[in-house]
Amino acid sequence: MTINRYKHSWPTRLFHAALALSIITQLATSQFMVTPKAGRPENVFFEIHEYSGLTALVLATLFFLNIAFRNRGTEAGLLFPWFSGARLRALGADISQFLKSAAKFRLPPYHSESPIASAVHGLGLLLMALMASTGALWWAGGKFGVPGSQITDVAMEVHEIFSNLVWVYLIGHAAMALIHHYTDQMSLKEMWSLKKHRG
Ligand code: HEM
Ligand code: HEM
């Protein structure tokens, strides 16, 4: 009996959905939260931001472990091409193809193993890990007292500097996924189904 498989394994789809939902929660709460400052109490949105952010750190770690050990889905070298000459050359060729299409106001056709899309996905994952770990470092500093409080101040500065990129990634990545879905080049279910197998 042949099993009709999704492109992405079940753990990949599970961790992707959970991480995406936690990041959307982070962005939403960041709009309404009141942070604790001298004499000013935090509000519930800040508490949600803290705890779903700590959850995002666990989920990002699980996502990395899953990439390292899975035997199906995008190769780790496509997501993180930065240490291989051959991968970087393929990325350069894909970027130049992308620019040629953009110059003609056309979107390049969808390729499931596209070097540029995969490298952007890898950078997105690294960005979420950076946001979650800088937030967690700041939190641990307040909770347990990290020696040399400057580390936690720097962590929070980095957190704030990179926060706008999270919006850019989410909007850009979701828009590309929706365009590919509605132009019938790929189905969102390839990543957003939680069924073990198709059908
Ligand atoms: C900020 C939250 C998100 C993060 C961090 C994220 C991250 C990622 C990563 C790392 C991959 C590559 C996984 C792999 O190849 O193993 C991926 C793929 C994908 N994501 Fe997201 N994602 C997010 C939100 C979304 C949203 C909201 C959508 C849909 C509207 C979406 C749709 C997809 C699809 C369809 C793929 C598969 C693309 C393909 O196989 O060609 N993602 N995402
Ligand atoms: C992937 C996880 C996270 C994302 C995407 C994220 C996103 C954001 C965003 C968008 C802002 C608003 C920045 C601004 O407008 O200047 C922010 C601020 C902040 N976040 Fe996070 N965050 C994450 C995890 C965490 C964690 C784990 C904590 C602590 C437990 C945390 C604590 C804070 C604090 C204290 C602020 C600054 C508030 C201020 O003084 O204005 N974040 N975060």
From TrEMBL:
Pfam families: Ni_hydr_CYTB. SUPFAM superfamilies: Transmembrane di-heme cytochromes. Residues 8-193 form the Cytochrome b561 bacterial/Ni-hydrogenase domain. Keywords: Cell membrane, Membrane, Transmembrane, Transmembrane helix. The lineage of its organism: Bacteria, Pseudomonadati, Pseudomonadota, Alphaproteobacteria, Sphingomonadales. It is found in: Cell membrane. InterPro entries: Cyt_b561_bac/Ni-Hgenase, Di-haem_cyt_TM, Hydrogenase_cytochrome. This is Cytochrome b/b6 domain-containing protein. One of its GO terms (cellular component) is plasma membrane. GO terms for biological process: respiratory electron transport chain. It is a multi-pass membrane protein. One of its GO terms (molecular function) is heme binding.
